Amino acid sequence: MIVLRADTLGYCMGVRRALDLAVRTAETVSDRPIYTLGPLIHNPQAVEDLRRRGVEVLPEGDVDGRIAGRTVILRAHGVSPTLRSRMESLGARLADATCPRVLASQRRARRLHEAGYSVVLVGDRNHGEIVAVTGCAPGCSVVGSPEEAEALDLSEPVGVLAQTTVSEEEFDAVCRVLRSRYSRLEIVDTICPATRERQESLARLAARAEAIVVVGGRSSANTARLFRAAQALGRPAWHIETAGELPPEVFGFRVVGLTAGASTPDSIIAEVEDALLGQARTDPGAGR
Fold first, then answer.
1. Alpha-carbon span 215 to 223, nearest angstrom
2. 90 lies in which domain range?
């Protein structure tokens, strides 16, 4: 078997920055427990590694007196201004790991809202990033499809932003609907370049590979989108979290492409690659 890695895969800048901050915090802060508000990133293996370092996950709905005097790491997805103020009022020491691109989206949403725009966010209304950005533009609308955009009834002017991990196709489809309905429309493209790079890299990979393995957490939005994109490219594709989830049928292909979501650790990508190559070497029938 030949395993081809995508040109761009694994940790994005925001995720790597968040993890580096969490590890440094665990090494320098002696008081335990240290908390993250929700899982720092959407990868259970990385979250478990932090737990072993003394960093525990505090469910977002459980912000209470337990955090008084404790260090709380704000995850890459960010938090709303209201939630930040509540944690500060409870006496938490905040270590901010919010992705700089998410912070930029929050600032843009706030400016549009304060300027009198009806703000539309394109993405998953339950995603942590979207929840945080909506807190900066009270009353904004969240849409995940052209159909939902068609159902909006907004006052102009209208300002549109994207969840940083949505695909260009998703964003463009919603924007086409909004352009057809509103004349005073400002579109702010807040899709992270890393998202585009992964999608473009996947397309190049699919042109060379017979099948695609996408590695990443089940709850990772960008990994799920990467998997759907792989399927849309017409190649057999699998979304796995670890090497142990590799399906037997993948070993029947001669050239397998390997990509991974923005919150997938380098070590897990390497384990999957080793498992593919190792099985191919030990199975005389693999790759035929």
1. 7
2. 13-99
Both 217 and 181 in a single domain? no
Which residues, at least 6 apart from 73, have a Cβ–Cβ distance to it below 8 Å? Answer: 18, 21, 22, 25, 34, 35, 36, 37, 40, 55, 94, 95, 97
**Which of 69, 99, 129 corresponds to the end of one domain?**
99
Is residue 88 flagged as an active site residue?
no
Structure tokens belonging to residue 111: 């400016």
The pLDDT profile of the chain, 288 residues, written as one tens digit per residue, is: 999 999 999 999 999 999 999 999 999 999 889 999 888 888 888 999 999 999 999 987 788 888 999 999 998 899 999 999 999 999 999 999 999 999 999 999 999 999 999 999 999 998 889 999 999 999 999 999 999 999 999 999 999 999 998 888 999 999 999 999 999 999 999 999 888 899 999 999 999 999 999 999 998 888 998 999 999 999 999 999 999 999 999 999 999 999 999 999 999 999 999 999 986 444 433 333
CATH number at residue 157: 3.40.1010.20
Chain position carrying tokens 């996947």: 202
Catalytic residue among 56, 60, 114, 129: 129
Say how many domains are in the chain.
Answer: 3
